[in-house]
Amino acid sequence: MNQLVAILITLFFLGLIVYFTVTQKLKDRYAFLWLVTASAGVLAAACIPLLNRFAVWIGIAYMPTFVFLVTIIFILALLVRQTISLSKQSDRIKTLTQEFAVMEKRLLELGHAAEGRETT
């Protein structure tokens, strides 16, 4: 029964990811990662007895501890990836702002030069 509930919850999550992808709320860049994650969740829910045996084989007596460990590592990897992406976006915004300021200054200088030619 627990396994059935786990499979239903992970299938619901997979359905949400597909829905968000189709409605363009989740961009293609991230959709693949989340589709793979949701699919892995469905697979893990379907293979709970195998996960129990694997956890015991690597020395973890309580399988949920293994699941939490894997989940925490995955979340940390996502956070690092998002931080890198945020840093790149911050650099791009800074560069665009500087380029905009330079172009605005040039435009003002051209406007002043054009006004000077009109008055003479």
From TrEMBL:
Cross-referenced InterPro entries: DUF2304
Superkingdom: Bacteria
This protein's name: DUF2304 family protein
Transmembrane segments: 6-23, 30-51, 57-80
Keywords: Membrane, Transmembrane, Transmembrane helix
Organism (species): Paenibacillus glycinis
Pfam families in UniProt: DUF2304
